[in-house]
Design brief:
Distance between the termini: 52 Å
Oligomer: single chain
Number of helices: 5
Strand order of the largest sheet: 1-2-3
Strand content: 15-25%
Order of helices and strands: HHHEEEEHEEH
């Protein structure tokens, strides 16, 4: 009877989806991403508006369709800046066990990355001005290899990022180059 229960438990554990056990990012990252998107789209829209005005001085008739097109693009950018960060937040997660750090992200295309902790060379803590404003930090983990040999975990609460960095350094590998 005990063996049957253990088999039932193991089959139940196998049925648990892979996303169980993943730690979410700090919820404030949604506001950070919204602000970052708004600033980025704002710069793009401002540059586009200047180009439209300059082009409109040369050929005024094109303003009839360019200005409404610019407003439609501005509405789309505003909607996207509000909509996307919430979905990206829900798609992000990370987990650490004794041997590996695993991250998953992506709304349309799911990306899962594994970083064997024995291959960890160094860990950086990054805090830009917007991240500091929100009390957040990003953890950048580096392994030997190309430019793609780093892994970033964004949107961590600043003290949690420091704690996680120290923990990863403690359990990190000893086969660094």
């Amino acid at each position: 009877m005990v063996e049957e229960t253990e088999q039932d438990l193991s089959s139940t554990q196998q049925a648990i989806p892979a996303s169980v056990g993943f730690r979410p990012l700090d919820r404030r990252v949604i506001g950070l991403w919204r602000l970052s998107n708004a600033v980025g789209f704002g710069i793009l829209l401002l540059a586009l508006l200047v180009a439209i005005v300059v082009f409109g001085l040369i050929r005024p008739y094109v303003l009839l369709w360019m200005i409404p097109g610019w407003f439609a693009l501005a509405l789309f950018c505003g909607w996207f800046s509000y909509w996307y960060p919430e979905r990206a937040y829900r798609a992000w997660g990370y987990r650490i066990d004794a041997k590996v750090l695993e991250t998953q992200r992506g709304i349309v295309f799911r990306v899962t990355r594994l970083l064997p902790l024995t291959r960890l060379q160094h860990v950086d803590l990054r805090r830009g001005p917007f991240e500091r404003m929100f009390g957040l930090a990003s953890l950048v983990l580096h392994t030997a290899g190309t430019h793609a040999a780093s892994l970033t975990i964004p949107g961590l609460e600043a003290e949690e990022a420091v704690r996680l960095r120290n923990h990863l350094v403690e359990i990190g590998g000893d086969d660094a180059v």
